[in-house]
Amino acid sequence: MFSIIQAAGWPIWPLVACSILAMALVIERFLSLKTSKIVPPKLLNEVLTVSQTSIPAPGIVNQLAQNSSLGEVLASGLRVLNTHPKCSDEDVRAAMESAGRAVAHKLEKYLSALATIASAAPLLGLLGTVIGMIDIFGSQGNGGGMGGNPAQLAHGISVALYNTAFGLIVAIPSLIFWRYFRARVDEYLMTLELAADQFARHLNAVRKRG
Question: What is the pTM assigned to this prediction?
């Protein structure tokens, strides 16, 4: 593999850098987008039970905010009620919507970079191939290193095409993982939105009973 990279010339090194960066981003997103860190399955029911009769104390709310992304959204509604008990239902929903936007930004972190790599890698590969072909035919025309040998010319072309192949090798997995993470984030955001709506209605009912 290293000999192929050396033979392909300097244009392949940006692709090597892109492949390393893409791998790092994929690993980071796999670790960050775990369900336990975003929407723990039992958390909403637990919070609904705890807040059934009264609004939890600020200390409990802070612990909830540190639990997960869902906990952060739910805690934002409880904080508003702890700070301003007389606030309206619209204020509670606005606080949770604001927290939801912040969470969405965190969930989408690095996805644009991964999409950029998926789009740019084939172009970088094509650029390397074009540069390689220019060098090959330039040396042919000048009676240089190729010496008019068809076998050497074919070898030079195959080396130049390594850039295109490597560009596709980097781009295809990057695109697949970007689509996978994009769908996963969209699913999480839908779950957070539904949970926040259910929790807002729950808090409104608790306040009316109080």
Answer: 0.85
146: its two tokens: 């190729």
Report CA-CA distances (Å) from 37 to 5, 32, 61, 67, 166. Answer: 39, 7, 17, 7, 35
Predicted confidence (pLDDT) per residue in 50-101, tens digit = 988 888 999 999 999 999 999 999 999 999 999 988 888 999 999 999 999 9
Q: Please enumerate, as own/partner, the contacts of 86-95 that have beta carbons within 8 Å and a separation of 24 or more.
A: 89/200, 89/203, 89/204, 92/200, 92/203, 92/204, 93/196, 93/200
In the numeric block, which tokens belong to residue 28? 């980071």
> How many whole angstroms separate alpha carbon 21 and alpha carbon 13?
12
The vertex-138 CA angle with 134 and 144, nearest 5°, equals 140
